[in-house]
Write the structure tokens for this entry.
Amino acid sequence: MMSTQDRRRPALLATGAAAVTVVLWASAFVSIRSAGEAYSPGALALGRLASGALALGVLCLLRREGLPPRTAWRGIVISGLLWFGCYMIVLNWGEQQVDAGTAALLVNIGPILVALLASRLLGDSMPPRLLVGMAVSFAGAVAVGLSMSGDGRAPVLGVLLCLLAAVCYAAGVVAQKPALARATALQVTTWGCLVGTVACLPFSGQLLDEAAAAPLSATLNMLYLGVFPTALAFTTWAYALARTTASRMGATTYAVPALVVVMSWVMLDEVPGLMTLAGGALCLAGVAVSRSRPRAQAHAAVVEPVARGRRGSRNAVQR
């Protein structure tokens, strides 16, 4: 008979994987700010993806992971091109055109697009708690974005680039979800990262030229982006996504703006204002609401497997 603790373990592991992803993705914004001063958008994306693909390739060899099945390749290629490739280039470019607050505000349209696309293409349900939680989190992201913005004026090109990044992110997530039903999280992440790396190869000349002149700190930040926010965080993301809906995972990323505020405060000595702190609190509150379930459903999710186990034990005794 499966104990309550055993029943809860997969959910706890998925939650822990999502938490690792959110923390590492938040740290990426701090590293991008440093590396972006020495590397152009395409070169930074290629360096990040290449180092990530190398780390993932070594891990695959150690774990003896084979090729993904043919049925998973469509989702892997689409997510690799849109999310690993296009998203990273466009986001790096967009953040050079607009301030960090405006970029964060625009990119955080992504989880809403994920929910809409997943509902339409994957048949994901959109329970009231998810919708309410996303609305609260988006309000928090708006507060954080406005409080961190400069004079409120943003170039049209920068706005369009950040919006395109949000679209690429959403489409990549929705494409990745079916692939995870056919291949492991490590396989999907490794080959998606490799597809993105190949797509960015036209920037290899820029990368070599800029690496020769870049300070060591910028290069180390680029390598950090590849190994941790890319290789590790995208794998933990895929692990968690395989065990929940795309809509719910997308809503989880609303915790990123709140963590960015805290990390900027601690690491960069950027003291946040009251509006920024309030927005971060709203982001976290919205994530908590979106990932919660009604008490009756949560109780049933734990009690029902135990009850089935007890009925099975009684039937075995009777037989």
Notes: The first helix runs from residue 4 to 35.
